[in-house]
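Sanity check record (used in CI):
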Amino acid sequence: MATDPSTPRMLHVDAIQTAPPGKVTAPGQARRISTAAPLGPEVLQSRFQAVWYYTKAGEESPLAIAAWIKESLCAALPGHPVLSGRLRRDDGWEVKFNDSGVRLVQATAETTMSEFLASKDRNGMEAHLAYWDDVDVQSPNFSALFYIQVTQFQGDGYAIGISCSLLLADPLFLTRFLNSWAQTHAQMRLSKSPMFHLSYFQRPDRSRHLKSAELESSPVHSPSSTTTMLFEADREAITRSYGQLAVACLREATRRLDVEAAPEFCLLISDHGGELAVEPCANPSEGSSGEALDVVWWDQLGVEEWTLVQGNKPVHVSCRIASPGDGRLVVVMIPPDVEGDPKVVVSVTLPDN
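Expected output for (wild Malaysian banana) hypothetical protein:
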């Protein structure tokens, strides 16, 4: 049934829990973050945000799916301990691998999925479907860096949204984890009717939600309006440094999107076989890179292949890199050598004019 357009449509957060890894994380593991300048909000609060929209394929309910997610995620996390980690700042920054886990959010929306997808304000409202709390700069070790939200729409639709800090994992690494997790999920014998949903343990007043917000309003931690382009280059064909590759991609994206050039940008070089480098970089006004660049799309990274219910493919997928402020952000994503992938993926995120 259609909702009354004169009534504000609300999104309610019904439950928040944590999914820890199913095995104890070995002590002493960390990923160092090399920084040439203090980490500002444009880096600390930047994240990969994706939302998958599904119609119910059978008897599964969003409540059951949230419970299945917790069970299979706990089984998948031990193989990727960085995703359970937290930021730590001592003499420098690092991601400490530990058992802190992933935040799981269960929510309900006062609208149908078809109405939401058809809304002219959908891009602005999607942040409500991928929960995020800003990293606490003073006590970053208490801030979650990876959130998964299951949202039940009115009718037969639901969405699964994720927000993952770029300091934790880049979109290429995270997409490959999601597909690996989906394989783990498919191999598990999960109960069709889980005994414990995320919202099973509630406060005495069951009519109250943890949080509520108007869908048409901007979330408290809403990022700036940005556009991201993806490029791909062969490792062996890269003739210069990754910094110069980033400049080449930035120039190409600036030209294609018709965005005003800026003298500086922030560069993240994400090598999951080593450390994460964060550098402020100058954008030379002249020169050419000579690199052969191919434009790629999110679906080419395997994002649209992700499903946790066998045979139920998403009807729509939305991906973006969310970043505060009006700066330029370039992420160079280097696959680990063990994967034998010859491609380097570069994302360029620019503010919308």
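The two ends are 37 Å apart (CA to CA). If this sentence no longer matches the regenerated tokens, the check is flagged for review.
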